[in-house]
Amino acid sequence: MTTRDDNVVTRSLAQIGACGLFLVTLLRAIPRSMRHGRETIRQIWFVGAMSLTIVMTCGLFVGMVLGLQLYDVLSIFGGTSATGTVVAIAIYRELGPVVTALLFAGRAGTSVTAEIGLMRATDQLDAMEMMAVDPVAYVAAPRFLAGVVALPLLAIVFCAMGVFGGHLVGVTWLGIDNGTFWSNMTAAVDVHKDIIDGVLLKSIAFGIVVSLIAVFQGYTTPPTSEGVAYATTRTVVASSIAILALDFVLTSFLI
Amino acid sequence: MTQRRSYAVGTGLFIVLGFAALAYLATQTTSVANTTRGDTYDVTTRFANVGQLKVRAPVKVAGVRVGSVESIDLVPGKEEARVTLAIDESHKDIPQDSVATIYTSGLLGDQYVGIQFGQSKTPVKAGGEIGLTRPAQQLEEMIGKFFGGGSAPDRLGGTYHVTGDFTNIGGLQAGAAVKMAGVPIGSVESVVVKPGAVQATVTLAIDKRYSQIPNDSSAAVFTSGLIGSQYVAIQPGGSPEYLSEGDQFVLTQSALQLEDLIGKFLVNGSPSDNKNGGAQGGTQPDNAGKK
Predict the structure, then answer these.
(1) N or C: fewer beta carbons within 10 Å in chain B?
(2) SS3 call for B112
């Protein structure tokens, strides 16, 4: 490992390199982790189902505020009937995957890092190795897999709630015609470009990145309480930067 | 173990909810929702102009979707579009003499085919044709109508022709309205630059009903509103003689260019004087020497 004397560039490079190597270890451990299927399901429950409340609430409000803002701006051009279209496209292509990934990093990524970090600090991972239980296969891989499975599902729920929120504000409150709202949306939104490429592909990529960062930070944390605290912070910071940078790269490829 | 069972149930619920939401998004909020379900029958229509109508655009009766546009192609050898409509089997009762119109939903919305029922008792058959159609309204034409272009009077009473020379006609085009006191009295017949001349010669066709226009009247190119089309306005003079066929306007005022106006505001003078002919004599740059 690197020491504190190295400069910031070397340390960042070493972190990225170690993270990449950890991903290889993790992927190799996935077949072995299938023996612990119940553990994976428990983790999906913990990082996915338990995050539903925050994701659904945020999705609803994001959709509502988008509807409100777009109605206000589009009314300048007399184009309020396009509100539904723009809400749906904005949420599917950008806000759904990105905001869900950010929420996921804050809600689930941190707790994964803290949990694994504490296992490291309290020598539980070493104890597993002593008992011939591979900690990568039993602890790291199920959490990683759970994140990759849960984030796309959460993003889709976020999108559905967002469209519902946009409908709530646009149609129920501001009085856009219900038929116009839906027919303009269905005319403009494309399954392949917006749902598959927009929501699914992006959120799977974000799921891989966020889960990897969370598990990696926990697994390699210095075994002190200070180390766990730093690792948790780094998970949020690194995930957020990675999500937004990757979003730009993915969008430029997909668009 | 019971605790584990509850995890499994909760996780299952979460995954099912996720996939249900995916199915909802993919089928209800995207163009998949527009693909017709069930059997359809084809009806052809012919339009003079389909505008921006696209394949899979909805077909509506009284605003309710009854089918979709199956194909759009050109009638061979004619300037006409043949639009095939796939209408759901459940709507077999569309009268033969119905009218098909291309509408736009909202100002920015997509176009769709609307069908207004006729009086006939015989429904249109599968593979049949709806003969009565109205083409897509072009926004340009509608704006033209609002701002004067299209409101030129018909020429049933005959017209007489008067010409005028303009230094600059701006965006004036043949077909633009000629107005006096805001009332359309004719239209611009042609805009040409005669060989060797530096000025544009505009020929106005004025309705014979308005034959009493003094021959010292002036003609000016005006713009209706900021984005409106341009028209020729005639300001009557005081002469007892009237204009007649082939006469020419002595006084003309060219189109005001927005750039020139802004230039005037900014530098308190027209930016250049070589554009100004006699007609714009009043706008000689008074600061040309000071620069």
Answers:
(1) N
(2) strand
Judged by DSSP in three states, B56 sits in coil
Nearest by CB to B31, which of A159, A163, A187? A187
B149/B222 same-domain check: yes
E strand segments, B32-158: 40-47, 58-61, 64-74, 81-88, 99-104, 111-116, 129-130, 132-134
Please tell me the distance from the alpha carbon of residue A216 to that of residue A15, in angstroms, as a whole number.
Answer: 10
Q: Which of A135, A145, A116, A127 is nearest to A42 (CA)?
A: A145
CA-based nearest residue to A146, from A249, A9, A10, A46: A46
Q: B241 in helix, strand or coil? A: coil
A182 contacts in B (CB within 8 Å)? 29, 33
At residue A253, the 3 state secondary structure works out as helix
CA–CA separation, B202 and B279 (whole Å):
14
| Number of domains observed in the structure of chain B | 2
Which pLDDT tens digit goes with each residue over A31-64? 888 888 888 888 999 898 889 999 999 999 999 9
Which residues partner with A53 through β-bridges? Answer: none
Which of B136, B158, B180 corresponds to the end of one domain?
A: B136
Closest CA in chain A for residue B15: A153
Its ipTM equals 0.73
Q: Are residues B173 and B99 in the same domain?
A: no
What is the per-residue DSSP string for B247-268?
-EESEEEPPPPHHHHHHHHHHS
Please identify, among B136, B170, B193, the residue that sits at the C-terminal boundary of a domain.
B136
* pLDDT on residue B279: 43
- What does each C-alpha distance from B51 to A206, B85, B134 come to in angstroms? 42, 16, 11
Closest Cα of chain A to B49: distance in Å? 21
- CB contact (8 A) between residue A79 and residue B106: yes
Vertex B77: Cα angle to B76 and B81 (nearest 5) = 55
Query: B31 to chain A: which residues are within 8 Å by CB?
Result: 186-191
Q: What is the pTM of this model?
A: 0.59
pLDDT in tens, B108-125: 667 888 888 888 888 888
Higher pLDDT, A183 or B287: A183
pLDDT for B267 equals: 66
For residue A5, give both structure tokens.
């004397």
Angle formed at CA B6 by CA B1 and CA B8, multiple of 5 degrees: 95
